[in-house]
Design a protein that fits this description.
The chain is an alpha/beta fold and 375 residues long. Helices cover 50% and strands 7% of the residues. α3 (72-84) packs parallel to α4 (101-114), α3 (72-84) packs across α11 and α13 (295-303) packs antiparallel against α14.
Length: 375
Amino acid sequence: MQRCSRCILVDSVPGISFCENGVCNYCVQYENSFRNWDQIKEKKKKDFEKLIESARKLKRNYDCLVPLSGGKDSTYVLYLCSKEYNLRCLAVTFDNGYMSDRAKENINRGLEATHTDHFVFKMDRKSTAELFGTFIKKTGGFCNACMRSINFTIETAAKRFSIPLIIKGSGKRVQYVSQIPGITNSNSSYFFKRVISQSKIKDRFSEIGSEKIGVEFYKISYLLRISRTFLMRYFPQSIGVYDYIYKPYNEIMEIIQDEVGWKRPEDTHEHFDCLLHSIPFYRDTLKIGGITPRTFHNCGLIRQGLMSREEALRNDEEYFRSHNQKPDELEILLHDLKMKQDEFTQFIRFSDPGKFVPRFERLAKKFYRKVYYKK
């Protein structure tokens, strides 16, 4: 088993390759994208400020929409936009019925500290289980169903309130797996509709699969070099804050703890806001040999200079010594799905999500990644 000499990814990871020095293509890709960050970070900040000022000048009821999950990144965006830039924000939350109590507490603290209005779409837990069950059986995962529901909530609110700018707590610097094929799949409306077609839940969830607005239209503007300040007059422009303003996560947590009263969980896992947060990472271990639920995340921390390679290796070794224990949350999900462990494992290992992705979307994504991630 070959392992990257810079991070700890192994040769079983889809799409991986190694240069003559043993560095994987994902580390090279990261370096190509961010080696000049110190030289351009002031320009990026000014670009961000230009976008928010353009949104402000449109004089809509809300300057921006902030998807709010109660996690560190979305809370930081809410603080940044409302407290530092004094934008009129609408926070938007999708509650799938599996939202943790700590996430709900952090959402309330953030809203109170920033005096922000809040739009919520809450799905009954039984309905969510039906939706997740269909996706697991057909695609081997359920996160894309949830992400599509989040995007549906964003689209609905942005259209209803004519919001010009959507600011997410994301950015390609902190997207640990988005460029790895087979790990994250499409969450587009086209993918969603194809998965639920020919199923008994088709009519119940068809609205989630309908595209309200082109919230991903910013990708076209990026590729065609069309000004987003121009496009936001007609289409909401969606951006990731860390593509413009980047801070290490430890600095972000210090800010939101001091300024918003955000509380971190005892479990320092990345996505504690969902009670099922550990399952997708466990799922990856069922599909790919030689990795742990923390491997991809820790590799991202190594690239950002926030973790040593030696520490990440120790974490992986400790996991393997514990005999690959499945997360406790899996029992919750299996109970709600009325599904057995071996059935779940079979769906994970042998389902083919790729067959539900339209050909035009695969081509568009391939082209976009080639341009966006400077290979």
